[in-house]
Write a structure and sequence with these properties.
The chain is an alpha/beta fold. It has 2 domains: 5-124, Rossmann fold (3-Layer(aba) Sandwich); 127-284 and 314-330, Dihydrodipicolinate Reductase, domain 2 (2-Layer Sandwich), CATH 3.30.360.10. The protein has 10 helices and 15 strands. A 9-stranded mixed beta sheet has the order 14-13-12-11-7-10-9-8-15. The protein is globular, with a radius of gyration of 20 Å.
Length: 334
């Protein structure tokens, strides 16, 4: 029998509208039963537009409902800690947007609260669910290109006006916590390792203000003396997103693979030339919520755990500190 899973949306957000409602409903028994918005009118309009039976402005009212098993949190980053801990205390499982919080201490509190309440906490790092990155991870794990030497990540685009808002005018935003943090998580997934140190330089002023970063160049050092370059930004039109991974016997090339959409290609280049790898694409969010749903019903673990969210945040904040100080920053994960 399919076990129904009732969901509450904490935040009437664009990402919930564009991706998450569909991903929840794609799971057998998945139902969105309520949405919370701090704006009564926005919540009512959101609920009506998406066929959600109930809306509220009260977190307590949503969390007190026995027909809600899990919540998806996509509110302002500064609210994630309070809302996650309240959900855990109410016995609700949590899928939270990245970054988990604005400090490592707050994110760690969230993980500890969920562990104490024995509920599942996941971080919505979608890229590790892509067929492209899953294929690249498998090739690295199998030693297809030998020992790793270096990598480059390209994740710069032009941020549409409708998406700018807090990303370019709020200290909780900026390209590092909004976008580069996904690159960090993807690298952790691909390499099964955390960087040991980072160095970063940022740009600001083309879209962002008050020193908020809208462009980044960073170098991360991984175990085994593997160096990785990241270029990220909000201000670069027409730039393709991708990853190049260089090893002792060849390289892996991921093209157009830094996307929410199920697109992109993977090729391997060795002494035999370049050969494309056959992929079967799937919806990234469907897979994330499939794994999360299985985890809350006792099977396996989420694609990205709360601990993964803490690690990606800690590394992202180290990049910020490096940009601020002009120094290479060592990584010490909690």
């Amino acid at each position: 029998m399919t076990r129904p899973t009732g969901w509450g949306l904490i935040g009437a957000s664009n990402v919930a509208r564009e991706w998450i409602i569909d991903a929840i409903r794609a799971q057998p028994g998945g139902e969105v039963r309520a949405v919370l918005s701090s704006d009564e009118a926005r919540g009512a309009a959101f609920a009506q537009a998406h066929g959600i039976a109930s809306h509220t402005t009260s977190l307590q009212a949503l969390l007190s409902r026995p027909d809600i098993d899990a919540v998806y949190i996509s509110t302002n980053n500064s609210l994630h800690r309070e809302q996650t801990i309240a959900a855990a205390r109410a016995g609700k499982h949590v899928m939270c947007e990245k970054p988990l919080a604005l400090s490592v201490e707050d994110a760690t509190d969230m993980v500890q609260a969920c562990n104490h309440a024995r509920v599942v906490l996941a971080t919505n790092h979608h890229l590790r669910n892509a067929a492209t990155h899953i294929a690249m991870h498998g090739m690295i794990e199998d030693g297809r290109i030998g020992g790793l030497i270096a990598a480059r990540v390209f994740h710069a685009n032009f941020l549409a006006a409708a998406l700018q808002g807090w990303r370019v005018n709020d200290q909780g935003g900026g390209v590092i916590l909004d976008s580069t943090i996904h690159d960090i998580d993807t690298l952790r997934f691909l390499f099964d390792a955390d960087p040991t140190s980072v160095f970063c330089m940022t740009q600001s002023g083309r879209l962002a203000r008050d020193g908020i970063a809208d462009g980044i160049m960073a170098v991360l050092r991984f175990p085994g003396d593997v160096l990785v370059q990241i270029h990220g930004g909000y201000t670069v039109p027409y730039a393709p997103g991708g990853i190049e991974i260089m090893g002792e016997r060849g390289m892996i090339i991921g093209r157009d693979c830094m996307s929410q959409r199920p697109i992109g290609s993977v090729a391997v280049r060795t002494s035999d030339g370049e050969h494309e790898i056959q992929l079967k694409h799937h919806n990234l969010y469907h897979r994330a919520f499939e794994l999360f749903t299985a985890a809350i019903h006792g099977g396996g673990r989420p694609a990205a755990t709360g601990e993964d969210g803490v690690a990606s945040l800690a590394i992202a904040l180290a990049l910020r500190e490096s940009a601020r100080t002009g120094r290479e920053i060592g990584i010490k994960l909690p």
